Amino acid sequence: MSAASHDWSILWPALAAGLLVTATHVPLGIQVLRRGIVFIDLAIAQIAGFGVVLADWLHLEAQGWAVQACALSAALAGALFLTWTDRRWPDVQEATIGVVFVLAATGALLLLASNPHGGEHLRDLLIGQILWVTPSRLVIVAIVYALLLVVIVVGSIEKRRTLFYVVFACAATLSVQLVGLYLVFTTLIVPALATRHWGGYRLAAAAGIAAGGYFLGLVVSALTDLPTGPAIVWIMALVAIGAFCVGGRAPSPRSRPT
Q1: Which residues, at least 6 apart from 113, have a Cβ–Cβ distance to it below 8 Å?
Q2: Which residues of 19-45 are buried (b: 16+ CB within 10 A; e: fewer)?
Q3: Do the domain assignments include residue 174?
Q4: In this structure, what CATH number is given to the domain that contains residue 156?
Q5: What is the pTM of this model?
Q6: d(CA 98, CA 101)
Q7: How far apart are CA 170 and CA 71, in angstroms?
Q8: Roughly what angle, to the nearest 10 degrees, separates helices 93-112 and 65-88?
Q9: How far apart are CA 193 and CA 248, in angstroms?
């Protein structure tokens, strides 16, 4: 879905949604890179998506609390399982995450196989419906994200594996339904990757990249009639490349002090 055929006023709730996702996912993305488990976001987000599909398969009310509970329960179960595997088999954690992702993705496809609208549901999970975000929904998301930010700031999640996975599961459950799986992954990894050598300014720079990607992506989508989610993904990647070229590159071996 693109923004050009709609009133420009719908871009503001979409931008607010992107900024909310940025606030939580940028610091989480930095932690993901430090832990070396890049694809955990895809796995847990996909598990949350599986929970949404399961709720639909059970004929639960769309956008209702039962759907949220189903998605969150699935994501928390996946997060706790990955916490256990991280402790027991840390040397193969990345491979385990990959297997979990594939099982969740194919499980969703199996549940959608008999659904005449299955392709539409799958598309919504992947690229999201950011243009259809309502202000009332954003208020609830903002409250939950604010609580998660408090935990991120004061909870020392970089030192507490279980708490990190639980916070991640809660954030991914909301964000994958808000902006889609592709934007969840992009917001988590692309800004953190581009700013990995920025030092003390890394968090602010990564947040700026993500926020700029959402803003410019929405504008480009509105002006060109391109699909909004993919447009934001590409624009954020281009902004990240520019930021990396300007100030994010590691010093060359010759320039390092001896």
Answers
A1: none
A2: bbbbbbbbbbbbbbeeeebbbbbbbbb
A3: yes
A4: 1.10.3470.10
A5: 0.82
A6: 5
A7: 9
A8: 150
A9: 9
Query: What confidence tens digit (pLDDT) does each residue in 111-127 have?
Result: 888 776 656 666 666 77
Within a domain: residue 1? Answer: no
Q: Based on the structure, what is the number of domains in the chain?
A: 1
Domain of residue 224 covers 8-250
What is the residue whose two structure tokens read 């599961």? 169
Is 3 among the domain residues?
no
Distance CA 187, CA 23 (A): 10
Per residue, the 3-state secondary structure of the chain, as one string, reads: CECCCCCHHHHHHHHHHHHHHHHHHHHHHHHHHHHCCCCHHHHHHHHHHHHHHHHHHCCCCCCCHHHHHHHHHHHHHHHHHHHHHHHHCHHHHHHHHHHHHHHHHHHHHHHHCCCCCHHHHHHHHHHCCHHHCCHHHHHHHHHHHHHHHHHHHHCCCCCCHHHHHHHHHHHHHHHHHHCCHHHHHHHHHHHHHHCCCCHHHHHHHHHHHHHHHHHHHHHHHHHHCCEHHHHHHHHHHHHHHHHHHHHHCCCCHHHCCC
Res 209: pLDDT: 96
Vertex 82: Cα angle to 27 and 45 (nearest 5):
55
pLDDT > 70: percent of the chain: 86
* 256 within a domain of the structure (yes/no): no
Quick: pLDDT tens for 205-218: 999 999 999 999 99
CB distance 18 to 175 below 8 Å: no
Distance from C-alpha of 172 to C-alpha of 178, rounded to nearest angstrom: 10
